[in-house]
Amino acid sequence: MFGCKRYIGTYLVACGMLTAPVASVAMARAVPTPHAVAAADVKALAAATDTFLKKYVSPEGNVNYRAVKSSPAQLNTLVQQVQTMAVQSLTPAEKKAFYLNAYNVLVIGAVLESYPLTSVMKLPGFFDKKQLTVAGEKMTLNELETNKLRKPYNDPRVHFALVCAAKGCPQLSREAYTPAKVEAQLTAQAQRVLRNPKFIRVEESTKKVQLSEIFKWYDADFKATGKSTVAYINQFRGRQLIPAGFTTDYYTYDWTLNDSGR
């Protein structure tokens, strides 16, 4: 009996000496940091957004709003994730990817609130009055664009990634932005948009290039790069360079809804 008690006592002492510290280490490892949690949430949002875009956005960048409206659960979940995201501990790349995806998701969500619709311009205050929740903050789409992307990053490429639900916008990418690839994705999107003859209209016969009014509205953003507008565009056009000496003008923005059903 004594030997049995001694064995039990030794076993218990051994557990106290060996397993308690191991358990503490395991417990410490099991508690993720606030950044790890937020970063995982951003990745999860990007993955879910990617699935949504591939399902409802055409290769031309138009949205099947009718289909989304008939089955809104997927979009509603994305909007809720955007609203509740914790961003305080995120890295600049994580925030950049999050806010790019947030803008495009919220635009689609705002359109669906009034769909069927022919243009967001029929909704007064769509960009500068309507308050939306982004990561716990109330803001307009213009404030999201300016305060969370344009000012912090000074990166004109965001103008080709943000899509305002219009035919005149850059085509909506069917790929969500991720922290690991956001810089490469922005470059690829700029190349895709700025090589599109519908977006940059080069007229060889008149030696003129017709530009989207985006380049007029955000002229200061492009000038801040130290390049002329044409030089900025040319860096993304590969061999399709706009010749020196061509004059520039702006074609009228097409605010028709980017609806794949129309």
The major sheet is characterized as:
3 strands, mixed
**What is the H/E order?**
HHHHHEEHHEEHHHE
Widest sheet: strand ordering: 3-4-5
Strand composition percent:
5-15%
- The gyration radius over C-alpha positions equals 25 Å
Estimate the helix proportion, in percent: 40-55%
Distance between the termini: 88 Å
Structural notes for this entry:
The protein is built from 10 helices and 5 strands; from the N terminus they run H-H-H-H-H-E-E-H-H-E-E-H-H-H-E. It is mainly alpha-helical and 262 residues long. It folds into 2 domains: 1-29; 34-189, no CATH class. Mean pLDDT is 91; it is low at 1-20. The protein is globular and about 65 Å long. The strands form 2 sheets. Strands 3-4-5 form a 3-stranded mixed beta sheet. Strands 1-2 form a two-stranded antiparallel ribbon. Residues 1-25 form the signal peptide. Residues 88-192 form the DUF547 domain. Pfam families: DUF547.
Using brief descriptors, characterize the structure shown:
262 residues; 10 helices; disordered N terminus
List the SSEs and their pairings:
Elements: H1 2-30, H2 34-56, H3 65-70, H4 73-84, H5 92-114, E1 132-134, E2 137-139, H6 141-153, H7 182-194, E3 201-203, E4 208-211, H8 214-217, H9 219-223, H10 229-234, E5 247-250
Parallel strand pairs: 4-5
Antiparallel strand pairs: 1-2, 3-4
Helix pairs in contact: 2-4, 2-5, 4-5, 5-6
